[in-house]
Amino acid sequence: PATRENIDMAIAAINNKPGGGGTELLNALNTALSLPGTEYFSRTFVIATDGYVSVERESYDLIRKNLGNANFFAFGIGSSPNRSIIEGIAHVGMGEPFIALNQNDAEISAVRFRKYIEYPVLTNIDVNFTTFGIYDVEPPYIPDVFAERPVIIFGKYMGDLSGKIKISGLSGSQTYTDHLDVSRYKADSNNEALRYLWARHKIRLMDDYARVPSKDRISEPDYNYSIKKEITALGLKYNLLTRYTSFVAVDSIARTDSGSAVTVKQPLPLPEGVTDAALGGYSTWGATASGFATAGHFSGSESYNTPDKGMNAGQGQQEWQSSHIVSVFPNPFTSQISLRIFIHERDVAELKTIKLYNALGKLVDVFEITAGDEGWHFIELDFSAKYPELPPGMYSAVLLAGEKQSPPVRMLYMKR
To answer: Helices (DSSP H) in 57-132: which residue ranges?
Structure first.
C-alpha cells in the first residue's frame, strides 16, 4: 500500500541507485513484466527517461501486447527530452505523454499524472464482437479505464449492422458486463470524421514504428519500405498529411529570375543542455543488408586531422555518390555497436578498411571489411571485448575505399 513509510522507502531506494551508461528499454520492460503481480489487481509501469535510450520496435510490440495486463506511461525528463520516443510509448500505450523540462514542470506533470490515474474504473477488460463482421481493430488489447481515459476502439466493419459488442471487466471486486446492440445504429454522414480518425491513428502508429529500429537488422530496409508504402497509400486515400504525402500550394509569384531553385543551408542548433555527443544515431534506407567484418589490429602513430582532409563531421547527409559510413547504432553505446555502411558500385573492387580514432585524433585500429557487393552492409563490433584497455569517451570511424576516404562518424563509448 502507498503508506508514507513505503513511499519514503521507495524514494530512498531510487535516490541510492547510481545512473550511467546507455539504457535498454526492452530489457527493462521484460524485467518489470516478469515481476509477480497480484491477481485481479491493476498494474502500472511509469517509464521516466530523457529519451536517449535504445528503443527497438520490439519494445512497442511488448507494450501493445500487454495493454490488458498493465498500464504504461512515459515521462520525458530534462531540458531536451526525445519527444518522439516519449510520444511513441504514449501512443502504443494508449495514454498521454508527460514532459518535465525543469523542476517546476516536474511538479505540474506529477499533479497532472496523479489526476489522470486517480480514479480507476475498470480493469481486465475484454471486448468481444459477436456476429459482427469487424476488422482492422485498434488497439489489439484494451488498457485499464480511468475517469480520464475511456475505452476507445477504432475499426471497420463489413456486411450488415447486426450483432452485439460485449465489453466485460472488473470494477473493484465485482464483474462488469455491458452489451452494445449494433443493429440499433446506422451509418450517418455526420460521423464522416470517424474514418479519418481511424486513418490518423493507423498512420501515427506506423510512423512511430518507422522511427525506431528493429533487432532484426537484416529485414530492416524491407520493413521500412513496406511502412512507407502503406503510410503513403493511407495518406492519399484519406487526404491526410504524412511524412510521405503533403499538400502543395502553388504561388504565382516568381522568386528567382533564372527559374532555378536556390539551396539554402539552414543551421540547426542543438537543444539546451545537449552536447555534440548526441550526434550520430541510426538511419534506415531501403536496401538489403549483408556483409561481415574481419578485424585486424594495426600498430602505428598515424593521426587523423579533420581540417587537412577537408572534412567535417557536422556536414549534412552524404549523397549516394561515394562509399561512406551511413550511421552507427546505438549511440551512445556501452559494449557492442553496429556500423551501417554504403558501398558504391565503383568501389566494389577496391580494398575497403575502417579506421578508428580516439578523441585526440590518434589512430586506435584499422580493419578490413569483406563487403563484396554494392549497397548497404552491417558491421557488428564488440567494442568492449576487442578494446578492453580503451577508456570511455568520443571515438570516430572513417571508411576508406582505395585512396578515397569518407567523412568521420562520431560515437560515444560509455564504458561500464
So the answer is: 57-65, 83-92, 103-117
- The residues that bridge with 74 in the sheet, in sequence order, are 47
pTM listed for this prediction: 0.57
Q: Read off the amino acid at residue 358.
A: N
pLDDT in tens, 49-72: 877 777 778 888 899 999 888 999
In residues, how long is the chain?
416
Are 139 and 67 within 8 A, CB to CB?
yes
Cis preceding linkage at 332, omega within 30: yes
Query: Reduced to 3 states, what is the DSSP secondary structure of residue 149?
Result: strand
Q: Which residue has the cell 536517449?
A: 52
Which of 351, 298, 303 has the alpha carbon at shortest distance from 323?
A: 351
Query: Which residue from 99, 95, 94, 84 is spatially nearest to 208, judged by alpha carbons?
Result: 84
User: What are 239-277's pLDDT values in tens digits?
Assistant: 999 988 888 887 777 767 776 777 777 777 766 666 555
Torsion, Cα 297 298 303 305, to 10 degrees, reads -60
Closest of 348, 324, 345, 346 to residue 396, by C-alpha: 324
What residues have CB less than 8 Å from 257, skipping those under 6 apart?
none
Q: What is the DSSP string of 132-185?
A: --EEEEE-SSPPPEETTB----EEEE-S-S-SEEEEEEEETTEEEEEEEEGGG-
Q: Find, among 330, 388, 377, the residue nearest to 354 by Cα.
A: 377
CA contacts within 13 A on the Cβ side of 167: 17
- Cβ 368 vs Cβ 351: under 8 Å: yes
